[in-house]
Design a protein that fits this description.
By secondary structure, the protein is of the alpha/beta class. Helices cover 48% and strands 11% of the residues.
Length: 383
């Protein structure tokens, strides 16, 4: 196991009716900006719960955060912060809303061009305090310090990370997820699944606790994924999916082990150029990447096959392919496609994405050996 430093200060308020606890967590003299997306929180009653919990506070709202939050939209929120002298941010929605809120919190205090936080990895030295009411389990953003933002004008999707944008607290009420469309529920499950794979499906470093935690998360998603689609108002299923998505990316299973994240980096470019949902890109890229990089990942693919999918027979090569096929089958069982061609995309998408990695000089993967040429190979297989 590698050396590590682990820090996670996020307070979790989990369960039915916990939105009412906002009044106990946000300092009363705060001027609060409630940030949300397209308005689903108004239809499902979450907005009303938040409004009631904020009785006695000075607060205003900023709506319109996109599914892949735009830098341009975030900067309009920064203008609102300056205009209204906001001192506390409350994200209400899914991971995209919270990612946007994290960036807004940093950008509002940044001197210079805030895009540098993403494009040049400029250090974040100050950020507004923030919290969230999570309504879509997927990204784990409610318990981590990372965010991903898209600049629409240049078709770039980039990430940043800073301990200053950990939420002070996160409210997770599984009942807020009852009204989610099936595709959003499915995408959230896939997002969490691939988050685990990015931290687990690498190579062994004798970290059995991290491995077992990761496998427990994967098993819970596999065992409950289709069930929750068939019983969307089952509280226990919703609760298990919600907590599993949080645990998939709160840093716990990442300590002391190598991490990959190439699936995400390639997927971000597909989204940036072609607008596919984040999880849709992950379901396409991960199986293709596993096939191209199977020699690097051989031991963990075999371990995952045995412990998660109960694959115990066949040659090494056969068991690896069975494991990758089992992942694809799981994604498909949730109604998510696993090939670029199924979205009408063809070979012409490959070169612009590969060239972007060449221009940035990025080498991807847990061993930094996924070159632009290997990106081309991965995308070719993903067709």
């Amino acid at each position: 196991m590698d050396n590590f430093s682990y820090y996670n200060p996020v307070k979790i308020l989990f369960g039915k009716g916990m939105i009412a606890q906002l009044k106990k967590e946000i300092p009363l003299k705060s001027r609060v900006l409630v940030i949300y997306g397209g308005g689903s929180i108004r239809r499902n009653g979450v907005y009303d719960q938040v409004r009631d919990a904020l009785t006695g506070y000075e607060w205003t709202e900023f709506a319109g955060i996109e599914a892949n939050p735009h830098y341009e939209t975030c900067m309009r929120a920064v203008e609102e912060i300056n205009r209204s002298k906001i001192s506390f941010l409350l994200a209400v929605g899914g991971g995209s809303v919270l990612d946007a809120t994290k960036f807004i919190a940093a950008a509002a205090c940044f001197k210079g061009d805030a895009w540098d936080i993403l494009a040049k990895r400029a250090p974040v030295r100050k950020a507004l305090p923030l919290a969230c009411v999570m309504t879509l389990p997927a990204t784990g953003s409610e318990m981590n310090s990372g965010a991903v933002i898209t600049k629409a004008s240049t078709q770039e999707k980039l990430a940043f990370n800073s301990p200053l944008v950990f939420p002070q607290f996160s409210v997770l009420d599984p009942e807020t997820t009852y009204s989610l469309p099936d595709n959003q529920t499915a995408n959230g499950i896939i997002d969490a699944f691939v988050h685990v794979c990015e931290q687990y499906l690498t190579y062994p470093v004798n970290a059995p606790i991290q491995d077992r935690y990761a496998e427990a998360i994967l098993l819970t998603l596999v065992e409950n994924g289709t069930k929750v689609l068939n019983a969307p108002h089952d509280y226990d299923l919703r609760a298990n999916i919600m907590w599993t998505a949080t645990m998939a990316l709160n840093g716990l299973i990442a300590v002391g082990v190598p991490q990959d994240w190439a699936t995400h980096m390639i997927g971000h470019e597909i989204t940036a150029f072609h607008g596919l949902a984040h999880a849709e890109t992950l379901a396409i890229v991960l199986p293709a990447l596993a096939r191209v990089m199977k020699e690097n990942k051989k031991e963990k693919l075999l371990q995952m096959g045995e412990r998660v999918f109960n694959i115990n027979s066949g040659s090494t090569e056969e068991k690896i392919e069975q494991t990758i096929h089992a992942m694809e089958t799981f994604f498909q069982s949730l109604g998510v496609r696993t090939k670029l061609s199924e979205y009408g995309l063809g070979e012409d998408i490959i070169e612009p994405i590969a060239k972007r990695f060449e221009e940035r000089g990025w080498m991807l993967g847990e061993k930094q050996d996924i070159t632009p040429d290997r990106v081309r190979e991965i995308l070719q297989i993903a067709l």
